[in-house]
Amino acid sequence: MKIAELIFILLLAAAAIAIYYRSLLTMRAARWQQLTQEELMGSCESIGFIGCSIITHDIFTIKEIEPLLSSAYQRYELIVLLNGLQHRSELLQIIKHYHLTRVNHTLPHDNTSGVNSLYRSTCRTYRRLVVMDCSKTDIFSAINTAINFASYDYIIPLQPHTALLPHAIERIATTLSDSAHRDIELIYNDTLAPCCVFQRDGVISHEGITPDIIQRIPKKAILRSDTALTYRTDRQDFHLPTLFFCASILLLGIGVAYFISIPAALAYGLTWGLATIASIHVLRQWSAPDCSVRTILYQIRNLTIFFRQIKFNIS
């Protein structure tokens, strides 16, 4: 038992060091962003002339669209995918509110099948908004079609119920303007919520966005960033099943550790406590609008799952 106890405690110590190190990297990124915030706001237009096109789907209300149009960055647009046949009333409401008008959506190449209409606003205030009435049921196919209408060189497919943190686009532009990152095809971050920033030409060369696109991008062309970019908007409520599941894992782990020895059980509990405190501190550093129980649990998962593979999921 003494050997098992020693090995168990050493593993927990290694996990605690890894949690501390990962938290330190994330908090250093947050502090760096805070220090450079004023400089970013004063030089947004000159950061390498880098532009980003946000592509989102399954949002049907003005309340969901409005926060995504709040960025002060100039070279930025929002493309909303909407099936007008299934959500006709919502589409008409969006058209009326944002003063949208139908525009030509033909392209020299045949990549517009399934696109019923394309809308842009006649109001300068909403010039960044593009609404695409698309009848394609496969979301990846719809996103790849939307990429053909994107105005900028970098694409950010947003998951449903996901919003950008303030100045997220400026952070992306600052990273990409670095000459060392010119060949980057993907920026990935999952601090508060998973976010992928794809280089448009890279996506085209890999024959579009698919569930396994990250595996097809060379590792040297992937930049894993510690800078938070997005957060979830559907985790505000107290989620009892998620909390119950994590509590069960915690108690089960303590039970197994207690079977080894009391010090092992204490060490296991302390490691979980460290992960919880680190998660809350990271969320506060980023001033996360959503600091619910589910978000804290998601952050604990990020800090405690080591050697995890980067995955792309848009559903």
Describe this structure in words.
By secondary structure, the chain is α/β, with parallel strands linked by helices. The chain has two domains: 2-31 and 236-304; 49-232, Alpha-Beta Complex (Spore Coat Polysaccharide Biosynthesis Protein SpsA, Chain A). It is 44% helix and 17% strand. The chain has eleven helices and eleven strands. The strands form two sheets. Strands 3-4-5-2-1-6-9-8-10 form a nine-stranded mixed beta sheet, sandwiched between helices. A two-stranded antiparallel ribbon has the order 7-11. It starts with a helix and ends in an 11-residue tail after the last helix. The mean pLDDT is 78.
Average per-residue pLDDT, rounded, comes to 78
Helix content: 40-55%
Q: What's the number of structural domains?
A: 2
Biggest sheet, open or closed, and with what strands and sense?
9 strands, mixed
CATH superfamily of the largest domain: Spore Coat Polysaccharide Biosynthesis Protein SpsA, Chain A
CATH architect. name of the largest domain: Alpha-Beta Complex
Would you tell me which CATH topology of the largest domain applies?
A: Spore Coat Polysaccharide Biosynthesis Protein SpsA, Chain A
Distance between the termini: 46 Å
**Count of alpha and pi helical runs:** 11
Q: What structural class do the secondary elements suggest?
A: alpha/beta
* Strand line-up of the largest beta sheet: 3-4-5-2-1-6-9-8-10
Spell the H/E element sequence: HHEHEHEEEHEEHEEHHEEHHH
Based on CA atoms alone, the radius of gyration comes out at 22 Å
> What kind of oligomer do you see?
single chain
Shape: elongated
What is the highest CATH level, the class of the largest domain? Alpha Beta
Number of beta strands: 11
